[in-house]
Amino acid sequence: MTEPSMWTRMTTENPEHSAAYVQRFRDLAAAGQDLVGEARLVDAMLPRSARVLDAGSGTGRVGAHLAAVGHDVVGVDGDPVLVAEARKEHPTATWLVGDLAELDLPAAGIAEPFHAIVCAGNVMTFLAESTRVEVLRRMRAHVRDDGRAAIGFGAGRGYEFTDFLADAATAGWAPDLLLSTWDLRPYTEDAQFLVALLRPA
Ligand SMILES: C[S@@+](CC[C@H](N)C(=O)[O-])C[C@H]1O[C@@H](n2cnc3c(N)ncnc32)[C@H](O)[C@@H]1O
Fold this sequence. Notes:
The chain is α/β, with parallel strands linked by helices. The chain has one domain: Vaccinia Virus protein VP39 (Rossmann fold, 3-Layer(aba) Sandwich), CATH 3.40.50. The chain is built from eight helices and seven strands. Helix 4 (61-68) links the parallel strand 1 and strand 2 (72-77). Helix 7 crosses helix 8. The radius of gyration is 16 Å and the shape is globular. The relative contact order is 0.15. The mean pLDDT is 98. The structure holds S-adenosylmethionine. S-adenosylmethionine is lined by residues 5, 7, 56-59, 61-62, 77-79, 82, 99-101, 120-123, 126-127. S-adenosylmethionine binds at residues 5, 7, 56-59, 61-62, 77-79, 82, 99-101, 120-123, 126-127.
């Protein structure tokens, strides 16, 4: 049986957590914060009208922007409250509830592989540790052979960058480019954030 993600454990312990998270992002949007930096980077990686999988899509923050600029976006997230918000606010993309460790979109009638997978907002650090490699494998299985993944998360959250890169290699990914921010600053040994642009190995 798939071990539940840390996010699922957190929201089970505190059922208010998801609604508070939704409200936080509504407030940030209302305050005019830039919430789409990750999406801008991913858009630059893509041909027009590309297929994008937003892995751990939350409220749809990233995928919705990619849909708004013309991409065909599917978002998958394990939190039904956040997926409901994404469906309500961003009906131009497809939002599904599901665990990334069990991702099987062809079984849900979405057979065509993706040009890119975006996994932003520390999703990797919320996975159950036992599912990390499987999630990366499932991502690989859903991307085209010439596709890529853009995965970003912060240091000090229980997933060492070196461990992540080793897990990605085990799952069939090779690093194309490592950055320390979504606005393209280079990765350094003391970076506090990793944005890994990966390609199928
Ligand atoms: C901090 S939120 C980020 C959401 C979104 N990517 C963003 O940046 O706005 C982390 C998300 O990861 C999702 N998540 C964590 N583990 C997951 C898993 N195994 N399967 C699906 N979603 C997962 C949670 O449900 C949550 O929505």
